Amino acid sequence: MRALRWHGRGDLRLDEVPEPPAPGPGEAVVAVSYTGICGTDLHEYTSGPNLIRTTPHPLTGATPPITLGHEFSGRVAALGSPVPGIEVGTRVAVDPCLRCGTCRWCRHGEYHICAKGGSVGLASPGAFAPLVTVPVAGLVPVPDGVTDELAALAEPLAVGLHAVRRAGVQPGDTALLLGAGPIGIAVLMALKLAGAAGIHVSEPVPDRAKRAAELGATEVYDPAVTDVRREVFLRTGRIGPDVVVEATGRPELVELAVSTVRRGGRVVLAGISGGAASLPLKQIVPFERTVLGSLGYNFDIPRVLDLIATARLDPAPLLTGVYPLAQGLDAFRELGSGAHLKILLNPEER
Length: 350
Ligand SMILES: [Zn+2]
Ligand SMILES: [Zn+2]
Fold this sequence. Notes:
By secondary structure, the protein is of the alpha/beta class.
């Protein structure tokens, strides 16, 4: 089968690879329908390795070249262990978190921060291929009425839902969202669902700013021309937002986030970055502000699918392109140009 594999920075190749073996205990093989290209995948391509390990992964032993792709839907092709409610042929979305199952965090339901954890498509061969091996624990049946395309968007939406759950947003809260890329838009959708009354968005790219406004942002600011901190302060009655979500991973925005949130408010950092931020402690301690990290999701993908199935969440605006896997490299380059939010690759079209 053909798979889109990461060989190194700037080096993605459509390779001929063997099909995965029959699944072992605790594993399943999924026949892939659609797989989204994540910002993480793009960053591995343009500036990696970031999350990909060049030495054997502690849980899987995998080393590059590695097939990317961790946001996907498909049908169960083979099961290595029985799973209640799931059989061969069941339509599924997949929680791609790999977990050891025995560490302190796995035992407390925090499998997404497993001491040895990783993701399918970064720490094991991923879903930019017709077949992919996944942990059975990650199989999530897709409700009738949710298409395979939309089911493939459940993973990035779960990132937004998780970040907003971490933020503890209450109905009527005000929020500032930094960045309206794919994760930012997922956060925006989750803020609306949580009942946020005011959703302020800072986004310099005009297309993204326009989309955020269309999707229900109260105000959208261009940080190149607006003092976002001051504007939001004034528009929240000189209080500041209850919550700030940083969805870009740019370390230089952390200080803006902390200095903008109201006294006693919460800052959630949802962008992944290897950079360092400097934080004046006088902006945290005397104001009792809380700064939290948010990584991926745990148990959020089934919630997202239920929200889509009950028409409370429409993920369609996230989707801006669908390409056959054979054009995957072009799709990566197009995503890098910034015009898209989410591109899906379909391995069945050749
Ligand atoms: Zn992702
Ligand atoms: Zn673990």
